């Protein structure tokens, strides 16, 4: 008997496909179009080929911004992943403390990026900000507007405050899914707390840690709003990440061709690094 297929379901998916095409594919094609052409306005374009890509890849400005991005993401991941695991391990698993902790952990995630930047911009001011005024009163020469180190510390602490909760919630979800029998067996065997973490908790958290790692990497690597609001990319260009430099090039200088080429390179770097992280972490998981 020949099997028949009902293709009417595609009509249900068609609106979603059209929406994705309108919101993602078409803008991407527009960027690709600008990246290989030059324009002086009036909708007149001139073929440029790969000139803009070559210009960006030979630009010290691009590599400096990329280096700042990589450094920031490395610092963020080094702090937030272990800190999130530590907090999740010490959160209560039963009782009234569970909903209280979950709500407290969720609150920073509900605050929009621009509001977070505004909060820390005011918080770090030495005249009216609680953080800046307190540090100044204690004798610290803190000024995130003029000092490069202070600007970086402010952005890092701000991001840790804002996004560590995401890692905590993901890790906590992995921990509560572990059956109680595992802990009972470990207790009978006399396993130490480190052994329980190493052989029971960490393997059960590997999948959620992979998600947390990828989400935090991509978000920290694409960070824009918070540093733009707090430091504006300064002092100098010390906190000018690729996202800020891209906006300056596209809107401030109206160099649409180089900006489009830079955005494609930016996207490919994120895609490549995310694929490398995913491959390495999943392969190590399979070997274990």
Note down, in words, how this protein is organized.
By secondary structure, the protein is mainly α. It has one domain (61-287): MetI-like (MetI-like fold, Orthogonal Bundle). 73% of the residues lie in helices and 2% in strands. It is built from twelve helices and two strands, in the order αββααααααααααα. It has helices at residues 9-35, 51-57, 60-90, 97-106, 113-123, 130-137, 148-176, 180-188, 193-221, 225-230, 242-252, 256-287; strands at 37-39, 45-47. A two-stranded antiparallel sheet has the order 1-2. Strand 1 and strand 2 (45-47) form a beta hairpin. The longest helix has 32 residues, at 256-287. The chain is globular.
Distinctive features:
288 residues; MetI-like; two-stranded antiparallel ribbon; mainly alpha; transport; MetI-like_sf; 12 helices; 2% strand; transmembrane helix; Sugar_ABC_transporter; MetI-like fold
| Rg from Cα | 24 Å
- SSE topology string: HEEHHHHHHHHHHH
Q: Which structural class fits the helix and strand makeup?
A: mainly alpha
Number of strands: 2
Helix content: over 70%
Q: Which parts are unreliable, with pLDDT below 50 for 5 consecutive residues or more?
A: none
Provide a short characterization of the protein structure:
This protein has 288 residues and is mostly helical. The protein is built from 12 helices and 2 strands; from the N terminus they run H-E-E-H-H-H-H-H-H-H-H-H-H-H. It has a single domain (61-287), classed as MetI-like (MetI-like fold).
């Amino acid at each position: 008997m020949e099997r028949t297929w009902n293709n009417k379901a595609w009509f249900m998916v068609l609106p979603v496909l059209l929406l994705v095409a309108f919101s993602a594919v078409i803008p991407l094609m527009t960027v690709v179009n600008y990246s290989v052409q030059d324009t002086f306005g009036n909708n007149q374009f001139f073929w440029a080929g790969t000139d803009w890509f070559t210009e960006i890849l030979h630009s010290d400005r691009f590599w400096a911004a990329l280096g700042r991005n990589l450094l920031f993401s490395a610092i963020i991941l080094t702090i937030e992943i272990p800190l999130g695991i530590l907090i999740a391990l010490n959160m209560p698993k039963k009782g009234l403390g569970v909903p209280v902790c979950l709500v407290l952990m969720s609150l920073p995630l509900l605050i929009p990026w621009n509001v977070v930047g505004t909060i820390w911009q005011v918080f770090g001011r030495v005249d009216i900000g609680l953080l800046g005024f307190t540090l100044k009163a204690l004798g610290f020469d803190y000024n995130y507007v003029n000092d490069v180190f202070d600007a970086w510390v402010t952005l890092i602490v701000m991001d840790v405050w804002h996004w560590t909760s995401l890692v905590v919630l993901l890790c906590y979800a992995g921990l509560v899914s572990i059956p109680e029998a595992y802990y009972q067996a470990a207790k009978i065997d006399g396993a130490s707390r480190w052994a329980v973490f190493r052989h029971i908790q960490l393997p059960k958290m590997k999948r959620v840690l992979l998600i947390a790692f990828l989400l935090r990497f991509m978000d920290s690597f694409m960070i824009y709003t918070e540093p733009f609001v707090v430091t504006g990319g300064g002092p100098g260009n010390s906190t000018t990440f690729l996202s800020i430099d891209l906006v300056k090039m596209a809107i401030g200088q109206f160099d649409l061709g180089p900006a489009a080429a830079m955005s494609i390179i930016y996207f490919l770097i994120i895609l490549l690094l995310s694929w490398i992280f995913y491959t390495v972490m999943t392969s190590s998981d399979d070997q274990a």
